[in-house]
């Protein structure tokens, strides 16, 4: 299927995209951008073309939603893992305060950021 071909979309999806496109044009968005935004909205809501033979032909709506959810959870875990590996110096004072609280460092509430960093390094 060539890029931009809408054969795999249902009539309902095509009507929805046309309605959204008209709405954007009434708001002053140029026609080409309005069309792109409309189809992006339809794709976001329904996961793309739904006619049989498309890439998602054997997936139910529930399965598609679960896949998106799993993907979002994996992305969040990756971001969280990245923040763990960041040095103490790169973290915010609030993050350092939370770590100091979990390690039960005394006097943490009156410490400045560098003092928290030093105390956490000593605690490890």
From TrEMBL:
Low complexity composition bias: residue spans: 66-77
Rho termination factor-like N-terminal domain span: 88-123
Ranges of biased composition (kind: Basic residues): 100-111
Record's compositionally biased regions (Basic and acidic residues): 1-36
Pfam families according to UniProt: Rho_N
Region (Disordered): 1-124
Compositionally biased region (Gly residues): 46-56
Protein name: Rho termination factor-like N-terminal domain-containing protein
